[in-house]
Each structure stands twice: as C-alpha cells, then as structure tokens.
Design goal:
With 172 residues, the protein is mainly beta. The chain has one domain (24-166): Immunoglobulin-like (Sandwich). Helix content is 9%, strand content 36%. It contains 1 helix and 11 strands; from the N terminus they run αβββββββββββ. It has one helix at 2-17; strands spanning 34-35, 37-41, 47-52, 70-74, 81-87, 95-101, 103-104, 128-132, 136-140, 147-155, 158-166. The strands form 4 sheets. A 4-stranded antiparallel beta sheet has the order 8-6-10-11, with no helix packed on it. A 3-stranded antiparallel beta sheet has the order 4-5-9, with no helix packed on it. A hairpin with a 5-residue loop joins β2 (37-41) and β3.
C-alpha cells in the first residue's frame, strides 16, 4: 500500500510544482536559426554596411523605419553589450526579447569575421531572455561565447528578429 501512496504523492507533487513563471520563448520548430548575413552597426546605431544578405525582420512594413512596429540593436558586431530600441504604438506595451544561437550559412571566405566558433546545438533555446515595458533596453552579452546569434522581439502578437555577431576581438 505504501508504494502506491508514494507514487500518488510524486504525481501530485509534479502536477502542482510545474508552473510556468517565465514565458516559453522557444519557437515552435526548435530549429537553430540560419543566418545569411548581418548589418554592421556602430555604437550610435548608424549602419555602415552589411555582410552577406541579412535575413531579418525588423518591422511590420516594407519600409521598417516607417512601420508601426520596428526594432534595431547596436553595435553589431559586439563583444559585451548591445542596446535595443523599439518603436511600437504604445511604449508601455510589454515586450519580450530573447537571444538564441544561430548558424551562418553560405559564408564565403573573407566575407565576414572569421569567428572560428563551434556551434552548440541547443535547438533554438533562449540563452538570454528579457521582459521590459519601455522603448529601449541594454543587454549584457558577456556570458555568451563568440559566434552568431539571433535576437527575437515579441510585441503583442508580432515577432521580429535580427542577426547578432559576438566577436570577442571587437572594440565595441
């Protein structure tokens, strides 16, 4: 009789202890994002070029800067911190940001920073997650290894993304 009580106790403990305090920000396909390029941005946010063909979605219109929703981060590449700026109809609207590891595909020799990195296959799991209610946030990236990443931003029902490069040799 005691083993049955023990099993019921374990099951009840599991049921009541499994709460979701933090949102599950993993995308449904569990794939590691593949990036084809990225924009090079200075610490003031100005873009000075691109490497490859960035496969990103920064806003909800064809002209991102004039979109109702838009986000940008800088600098890129970076070695320690990035600033994220968000444009949305309501500044106080809750925003969820997460960063996953990514893979650079179709990289040409001498076409970008040679990061000499080894991708860990974490299945698109968020490595950093933030929830905020303002139009900007600074993210400390020092805990991430040198390599390629994707930044996701969810505002309301909209999800946007951009490609991030962490280069430990970068002066930014």
């Amino acid at each position: 009789m005691k083993p049955k009580i023990f099993i019921y106790f374990i099951l009840l403990s599991l049921i009541f202890s499994c709460t979701k305090d933090e949102p599950d920000l993993r995308l449904s396909d569990y794939e590691i994002p593949k990036i084809e390029g990225y924009y090079v941005r200075l610490p003031d946010g100005s873009s000075i070029g691109q490497v490859g063909t960035p496969n990103i979605k920064q806003g909800n219109g064809s002209n991102y800067f004039n979109s109702e929703y838009f986000f940008v981060f800088y600098p890129n590449p970076t070695n320690r911190t990035c600033c994220v700026h968000v444009k949305s109809p309501s500044i106080q609207e809750t925003k969820k940001l997460w960063i996953t590891q990514a893979r650079y595909v179709n990289q040409l020799p001498n076409s970008s920073v040679d990061l000499g990195m080894i991708n860990l296959d974490v299945g698109g799991a968020p490595l950093i997650q933030k929830v905020f209610n303002s139009d900007h946030i600074a993210i400390d990236l020092r805990s991430l290894a040198q390599g390629y990443y994707r930044i996701y931003l969810k505002v309301g029902e909209h999800i946007y993304y951009d490609n991030l490069v962490i280069d430990k040799q970068s002066k930014y």
